[in-house]
């Protein structure tokens, strides 16, 4: 078999400009496609397989060229409606990831000491047997909760399978390092406030393939887009980033709130280089301004939100008819009628005879009440333009300009992951959702926040099986009672897990099954996990390559790359498939690995595991399966009445006609059962901008906990509030004298989390992490362009290469997560040299609702270093060792082994 015929030089020419260029379309079309990769001319023997990339959390359509069983070229699929033929550098590099010489090829068990990197090849059967045997031993001796399961967040197509395994096995303790730090704060808050019409999650996150209105750039009336703590040009270059470029080309004005001058900031009408961790202060300022200048959508707010409802200022709960009249209805809310100056029940959806006050404080039966909007107004009162400018290190004139652009909608506020990564995560999401709703930017043409159709193939096509956990096991979830928002996803709180491992309180954890990349690159305060890893009795790592985490494992399992795996992919109203284009070595789909472990536990006497393979016993939940084919066929037959293979043959498959899928104002549709509008998926059927439900959540766990929980240590606040970051750079802070700069992070277009650091093409473009630093700060700390610097926080010290630029707030520095596979077999195991998560913070304060810790907005200092870290590769030729190796193609066979 011949070596891959790929021309690296031409590839570089195409991808070195990624980030900005990758999000363009039209004239750059050829460049971003496979032809730039210098692929050989097509011969009759070349087969083109239509698949979808999973190099990040995007869904980009791919045409894979396969010759004699060997993948030789990737290019974009022009029919995929969200990406229209575009692919980014990571996607094109999939070929080097697939054929990387460092792949995990066979199951292996450790034979040397931990970290010694001595392994013995074993059969799959032996590996599964060892794992199941150990898990059953722990379960019987100590309890299932002492087994910890973890997974990857973005980029993990089968997120649900870990949750499924954990619940079937009986442990409430599973997590992924995003979650509380990614997307969960937004999904929970948008769900509790907006609720959507059908209670399905809906946010405005372009990175997470939401905000679907942007893909209709040819006919959307959208006028403005605020990109807040997000950068589509980096987070989804060929998908959302591409669509944003198209919108701007058609005159949509953009505002970018980001400490850095990113590709999207560079093209914005207003760029607000905010101080990390102060977003809520700026949001409260925007709300204050919108209230003060009456820029809100009065009609929508009055008729479709709970802002006119009266709230008892003592209990903070909305008044019900039953509170003001005996025998009154407890589901009918109360307003203050302007005409009669009295409290009146407001029947759903509206009563034309009433004229409710939007603002004001009133006494009702001797009880002080305010409207929801009045409470919001009071909360925002201190946050004038000048005050916000002072807190956020911004210019008041620019803030005002930004708000005025936002108010010229329709449009919306795309909130990214930045605000999910500091302890004000939930508050930032509450305020962002409130802003769009106050402006009425919801479900109307041109709005980002929508309720378009559901093609029933979300990324985790798996039902919420965690509810199967018996109440007793559910209540053992670490952190579950305090940070109750996390029960919406069913995951535990990783800092609480860490404490439990270290202290044995309330119980120790003994086994860790991990199925993603490099946890030491992505978890906050990475060093704090080493003691925990060393304490574990048994660790399994399932991944495509060995990473720093593998160094601590007892069993390594080889998993498939996306080019070897099958899945259903839902872009807009269409269904596409990811399908195996080849198969290498003994790699297996992880979904099947979990199933095999469950099956073996069943054979060893675990009744729930055994039952999970029996459809009769698990109905109506989906049963476990023996192979990917069985699993996908089960889903496809259930939802589409055809097998996965039949679907693959029909791609591009229109799951719903576009006009039925792209529907607006679904809240106004009449519900045939009631004869009234469907409204929103909240108890009041209105958007609940005054977040009464957060109080109930704190007290009981409703609506997410399947069984009632004891109250959290304090009620969650129904409104967003601002607190200064715990590690504050402001004058008077003792810490800031030692660590004067604020650290933050953000995506690089060349890598996905901890992945692809072993891909020569990408490391050639970006070999080591840069730290962005303003020229003034650089001068102050004696740093010049290209210098190696030390970066230090209270928690540790790393190195980075200085990128001196005016494109960053002068008090802020920026880096992205990084690790170096080339030093895997040294004492550092590759995670200590240049990894920003050595510096980040994973202890209190946590977000009250969700449990978020601090990945952005903590303090560091920078000084000139004596040179690069030892052993880290810097020159292009060094990466040659990782170029694809010639190998016989393993025949494409049944995906299970
Ligand atoms: N300091 C700092 N830390 C952070 C962040 C930050 O911005 N700053 N970001 C946080 C966020 S938002 C997140 S989501 C986490 C990410 O943390 P993790 O998700 O744990 O990171 P990875 O494992 O590197 O990435 C997810 C994995 O999914 C893998 N994947 C692709 N295909 C498959 C497959 O078929 N099966 C499986 N199982 N996996 C597959 C990818 O290869 C990738 O390794 O990191 C968090 N950590
Ligand atoms: N290339 C690539 N794409 C990815 C991923 C990846 O790892 N690589 N990960 C995927 C995942 S799981 C996620 S969650 C998404 C995330 O996608 P995004 O939401 O776009 O996340 P980031 O790029 O991490 O952060 C967005 C921006 O926030 C800015 N920022 C930093 N601190 C602050 C702050 O305090 N306030 C504000 N307002 N802005 C701040 C950063 O400079 C950055 O440009 O990307 C997804 N797509
Ligand atoms: S944005 Fe790039 S890595 Fe992500 S799915 Fe698309 S092509 Fe793949
Ligand atoms: Mo994420």
TrEMBL record:
<keyword id="KW-0500">Molybdenum</keyword>
<keyword id="KW-0411">Iron-sulfur</keyword>
<dbReference type="Pfam" id="PF00384">
    <property type="entry name" value="Molybdopterin"/>
</dbReference>
<keyword id="KW-0408">Iron</keyword>
<dbReference type="InterPro" id="IPR050612">
    <property type="entry name" value="Prok_Mopterin_Oxidored"/>
</dbReference>
<dbReference type="InterPro" id="IPR009010">
    <property type="entry name" value="Asp_de-COase-like_dom_sf"/>
</dbReference>
<comment type="similarity">
    <text>Belongs to the prokaryotic molybdopterin-containing oxidoreductase family.</text>
</comment>
<keyword id="KW-0456">Lyase</keyword>
<dbReference type="Pfam" id="PF04879">
    <property type="entry name" value="Molybdop_Fe4S4"/>
</dbReference>
<dbReference type="InterPro" id="IPR037949">
    <property type="entry name" value="MopB_CT_Acetylene-hydratase"/>
</dbReference>
<protein>
    <submittedName>
        <fullName>Acetylene hydratase</fullName>
        <ecNumber>4.2.1.112</ecNumber>
    </submittedName>
</protein>
<dbReference type="GO" id="GO:0018818">
    <property type="term" value="F:acetylene hydratase activity"/>
</dbReference>
<dbReference type="InterPro" id="IPR019546">
    <property type="entry name" value="TAT_signal_bac_arc"/>
</dbReference>
<keyword id="KW-0560">Oxidoreductase</keyword>
<dbReference type="InterPro" id="IPR006656">
    <property type="entry name" value="Mopterin_OxRdtase"/>
</dbReference>
<dbReference type="InterPro" id="IPR006311">
    <property type="entry name" value="TAT_signal"/>
</dbReference>
<keyword id="KW-0004">4Fe-4S</keyword>
<keyword id="KW-0732">Signal</keyword>
<dbReference type="InterPro" id="IPR006657">
    <property type="entry name" value="MoPterin_dinucl-bd_dom"/>
</dbReference>
<dbReference type="InterPro" id="IPR006963">
    <property type="entry name" value="Mopterin_OxRdtase_4Fe-4S_dom"/>
</dbReference>
<dbReference type="Pfam" id="PF01568">
    <property type="entry name" value="Molydop_binding"/>
</dbReference>
<keyword id="KW-0479">Metal-binding</keyword>
<feature type="domain" description="4Fe-4S Mo/W bis-MGD-type">
    <location>
        <begin position="46"/>
        <end position="102"/>
    </location>
</feature>
């Amino acid at each position: 078999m011949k070596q891959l015929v790929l021309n690296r030089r031409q590839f570089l020419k195409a991808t070195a400009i990624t980030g900005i260029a990758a999000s363009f379309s039209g004239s750059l079309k050829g460049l971003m496609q496979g032809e730039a990769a210098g692929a050989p001319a097509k011969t009759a023997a070349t087969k083109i397989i239509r698949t979808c990339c999973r190099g990040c959390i995007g869904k980009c359509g791919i045409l894979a060229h396969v010759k004699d069983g060997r993948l030789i070229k990737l290019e974009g699929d022009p029919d995929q409606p969200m990406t229209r033929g575009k692919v980014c550098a990571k996607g094109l590099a999939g070929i080097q990831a697939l054929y990387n010489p460092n792949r995990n090829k066979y199951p292996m068990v450790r034979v040397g000491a931990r970290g010694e990197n001595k392994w013995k090849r074993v059969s799959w059967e032996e590996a599964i047997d060892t794992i199941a045997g150990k898990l059953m031993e722990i379960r019987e001796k100590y309890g299932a909760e002492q087994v910890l399961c973890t997974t990857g967040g973005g980029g993990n197509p089968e997120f649900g399978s870990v949750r499924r395994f954990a619940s079937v096995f009986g442990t409430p303790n599973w997590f992924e390092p995003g979650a509380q730090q990614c997307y969960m704060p937004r999904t929970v808050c948008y769900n509790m406030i907006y609720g959507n019409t059908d209670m399905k999650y809906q946010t405005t996150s372009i990175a997470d393939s939401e905000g679907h209105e942007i893909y209709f750039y040819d006919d959307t009336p959208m006028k403005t887009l605020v990109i807040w703590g997000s950068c589509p040009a980096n987070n989804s270059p060929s998908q959302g980033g591409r669509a944003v470029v198209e919108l701007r080309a058609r005159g949509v004005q953009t505002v970018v709130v980001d400490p850095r001058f990113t590709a999207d900031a560079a093209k914005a009408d207003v760029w607000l280089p905010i101080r990390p961790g102060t977003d809520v202060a700026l949001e409260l300022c925007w709300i204050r301004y919108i209230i003060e200048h009456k820029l809100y959508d009065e009609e929508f707010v009055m008729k479709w939100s709970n802002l006119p409802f009266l709230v008892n200022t003592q209990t903070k709960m909305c008044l019900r008819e039953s509170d003001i009249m005996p025998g009154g209805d407890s589901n009918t809310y109360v307003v203050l009628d302007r005409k009669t100056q009295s409290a009146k029940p407001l029947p759903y959806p509206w009563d034309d005879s009433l004229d409710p006050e939007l603002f004001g404080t009133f006494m009702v039966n001797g009880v002080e009440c305010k409207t929801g909007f009045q409470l919001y107004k009071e909360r925002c009162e201190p946050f004038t333009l000048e005050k916000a400018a002072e807190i956020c290190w911004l210019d008041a004139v620019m803030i005002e300009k930004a708000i005025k652009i936002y108010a010229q909608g329709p449009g919306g506020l795309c909130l990214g992951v930045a605000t999910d990564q500091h302890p004000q995560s939930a508050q930032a999401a509450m305020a962002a959702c409130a802003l769009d709703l106050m402006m009425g930017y919801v479900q109307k043409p041109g709005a980002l926040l929508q309720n378009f159709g559901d093609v029933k193939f979300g990324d985790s096509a798996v039902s919420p099986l965690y509810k199967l956990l018996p109440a007793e096991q559910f209540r053992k979830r670490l952190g579950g009672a305090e940070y109750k928002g996390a029960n919406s996803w069913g995951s535990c709180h990783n800092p609480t897990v860490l404490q439990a491992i270290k202290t044995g309180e309330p119980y120790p954890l003994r086994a860790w099954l991990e199925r993603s990349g490099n946890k030491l690159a992505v978890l906050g305060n990475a060093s704090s996990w080493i003691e925990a890893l060393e304490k574990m009795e048994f660790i399994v790592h399932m991944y495509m390559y060995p990473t720093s985490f593998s160094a601590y494992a007892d069993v390594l399992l080889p998993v498939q790359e996306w080019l070897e795996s099958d899945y259903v992919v839902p872009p807009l109203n269409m269904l596409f498939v990811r399908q195996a284009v080849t198969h290498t070595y003994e790699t297996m789909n992880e979904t099947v690995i979990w199933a095999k472990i469950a099956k073996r536990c069943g054979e060893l006497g675990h009744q729930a595991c055994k039952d999970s393979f029996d459809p009769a016993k698990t109905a109506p939940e989906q049963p476990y399966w023996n192979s990917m084919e069985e699993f996908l066929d089960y889903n496809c037959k259930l939802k589409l009445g055809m097998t996965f293979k039949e679907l693959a043959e029909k791609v591009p498959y229109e799951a719903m006609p576009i006009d039925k899928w792209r529907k607006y104002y679904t809240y106004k549709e009449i519900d045939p059962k009631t004869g009234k509008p469907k409204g929103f998926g909240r108890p009041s059927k209105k958007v609940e901008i005054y977040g009464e439900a957060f109080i109930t959540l704190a007290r009981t766990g409703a609506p997410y906990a399947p069984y009632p929980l004891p109250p959290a240590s304090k009620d969650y606040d129904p409104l967003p509030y601002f607190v200064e970051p715990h590690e504050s750079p402001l004058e008077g802070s003792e810490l800031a004298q030692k660590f004067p700069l604020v650290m933050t992070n953000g995506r690089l277009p060349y890598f996905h989390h901890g992945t692809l650091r072993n891909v020569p093409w990408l490391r050639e473009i970006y070999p080591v992490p840069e730290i962005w630093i303003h020229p003034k700060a650089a001068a102050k700390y004696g740093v010049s362009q290209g210098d190696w610097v030390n970066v230090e926080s209270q928690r540790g010290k790393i190195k980075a290469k200085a990128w001196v630029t005016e494109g960053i707030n002068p008090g802020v520095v920026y880096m992205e997560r990084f690790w170096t596979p080339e030093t895997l077999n040294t004492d550092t195991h590759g995670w200590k040299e240049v990894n920003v998560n050595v510096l980040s913070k994973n202890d209190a304060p946590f977000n009250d609702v969700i449990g978020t810790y601090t990945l952005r907005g903590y303090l560091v200092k920078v000084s000139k270093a004596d040179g690069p870290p030892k052993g880290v590769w810097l020159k292009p030729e060094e990466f040659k060792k990782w170029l694809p190796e010639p190998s016989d193609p393993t025949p494409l066979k049944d995906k299970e082994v």
